[in-house]
Amino acid sequence: MAIDNLSSFKKMLSDESNEDLKFKAQEIAAQYIGEAAQRGVQMTLDDAYSLSAVRLHVLTGERVTDDWWSEAEGALDSFQKAREDREIMEAINDEDGDLKRRADAEAALQAELDTLSPIERMKRARELGQRLPGPGEIKPRPLSPAEKAAALQELERLPAAMRLVRLRELGL
């Protein structure tokens, strides 16, 4: 029978005679969870305990390695998801970069958002660390001279109250 380090560790923490160790483990895990949060990743207590760097820190009383982040990125789904989200947002926010990469990232994000309810969309936006643009918040593209002339003619036919709104929509 193989020995599983994580289950052995959890069993050790659940033992009633190890209350001090359990408290120490929670404090140390909170440090790692805080470091992950600073990097934009939500990590649970179980995620922290699943990292050998955290378990060794609890058992030895000192950080064994400063490279716990590499282990976490490879081992935890939440870190992989955060990395994917970061790559998508970098591609979307890179206005001077590869246009195809940006368009692909925007399409992928829009496809994901189209499947979500408004509440889930807001939650997802918070996860991405962004405020997603609402209607009218997307920057209008510059108008060609012909489009600008047509827009100005259209403005003449609109009631005065609607002209200002239309001007803002056109970015004039």
Query: Which secondary-structure class do the elements indicate?
Result: mainly alpha
- By DSSP (H or I, 4+ residues per run), the number of helices equals 10
- Tell me what portion of residues adopts beta-strand conformation: under 5%
Backbone CA Rg: 26 Å
- Classify the helix fraction into a percent range: 55-70%
How far from one another are the termini? Answer: 74 Å
Order of helices and strands: HHHHHHHHHH
Number of self-contained structural domains: 3
Mean pLDDT: 79
Oligomeric category:
single chain
**What composes the largest sheet?**
none
Low-confidence stretches: none
Count of strand segments: 0
State the shape: elongated
Tags for this model:
172 residues; mainly alpha; 3 domains
Q: How would you explain this protein's 3D organization?
A:
The protein is mainly alpha-helical and 172 residues long. The protein folds into 3 domains: 5-75, no CATH class; 80-128, no CATH class; 140-172, no CATH class. Helices cover 70% and strands 0% of the residues. The radius of gyration is 26 Å and the shape is elongated. The model has no long low-confidence stretch (mean pLDDT 79).
Describe what is shown at a glance:
By secondary structure, the chain is mainly α.
Element layout with pairings:
Elements: H1 5-14, H2 19-38, H3 45-49, H4 52-60, H5 68-75, H6 77-93, H7 99-114, H8 118-128, H9 145-157, H10 160-170
Helix pairs in contact: 2-4, 5-6, 6-7
